[in-house]
Amino acid sequence: MGKRLPMQGEKTIVDHITTGLTKVAAALRSQAWEGGTVRKLTPTQGQILVLLAERATRAVRLNDVADELCLTAATVSDAVITLVEKQLVQKERSAEDRRALVITLTAAGRREAQQTAGWTEVVEAGVKSLTPDEQAVFLRGLTKVIHSLQTQGVISVARMCAGCTYFQPYVHADAARPHHCGLVNKPMGEGQLRLDCPDFVPVGDVDRPRRWEAFVSGGEGR
Ligand code: SF4
């Protein structure tokens, strides 16, 4: 009988993938600390700068930041106080609701955010090594994992196609581009699914389960 693979029978593919994801998370955390130490920013402060840069066209409140980064309001508040002291972020009254405070980047904050965003480059390089087909499968898998995290209450906001009111899964016969984005009124392929779309609008509670089922069923029974 041939030699058994190490750990054969003890670990499942689910265990191995979960281990892989924790390694990716560890790599990102170490990059965030490394880059942040040079610029005297904690990973949380860096994440807030990057998020504000990505949401530059819309008003962002403290609670929005907490929801999107899965942090407590107190943690975000402390980080923002420090960022304001460093003159990277400013608080101002919302134009839509004068009682609400919104946070935006200063010019120095925008420059800092650009440099900070570089901490994901190591993972990007790995993802680029996948073929387009592998990337599309990976993207679909990540969509499902994020949906599960949302269902478990770990992530409150996921601005992804599968939960968007504009998303119409498997409405086109073209296997390369079976989905449709109603916002831009165009077909889209698996590799074009968004996990963080600025134009995302959450689908209503009534339609959400049906929409998700249509997406995961892969267009069966069309
Ligand atoms: S608006 Fe964005 S999230 Fe919604 S379906 Fe279109 S691309 Fe996807």
Summarize the model shown.
Helices cover 48% and strands 8% of the residues. It has helices at residues 13-39, 43-54, 62-69, 73-85, 107-116, 121-128, 132-151, 208-216, and strands at 89-93, 101-105, 167-168, 179-181, 186-188. The protein binds iron/sulfur cluster.
Bound molecules: iron/sulfur cluster
The total of helices stands at 8
Name the average pLDDT.
Answer: 88
CATH topology value of the largest domain: Arc Repressor Mutant, subunit A
N/C terminus separation: 48 Å
The CATH H-level homologous superfamily of the largest domain: Winged helix-like DNA-binding domain superfamily/Winged helix DNA-binding domain
Name of the CATH class of the largest domain: Mainly Alpha
- Taking strands numbered 1, 2, ... along the chain, how are they ordered across the largest sheet? 3-4-5
Q: Helix coverage percent of residues?
A: 40-55%
Q: Strand-residue fraction?
A: 5-15%
- Flag low-confidence runs: none
For the record, the CATH architecture of the largest domain stands as Orthogonal Bundle
Largest sheet: 3 strands, antiparallel
Order of helices and strands: HHHHEEHHHEEEH
Structural class: mainly alpha
The total strand number stands at: 5
Task: Determine Rg (CA atoms, Å).
Answer: 20 Å
Q: Please indicate the count of domains.
A: 2
Shape: globular
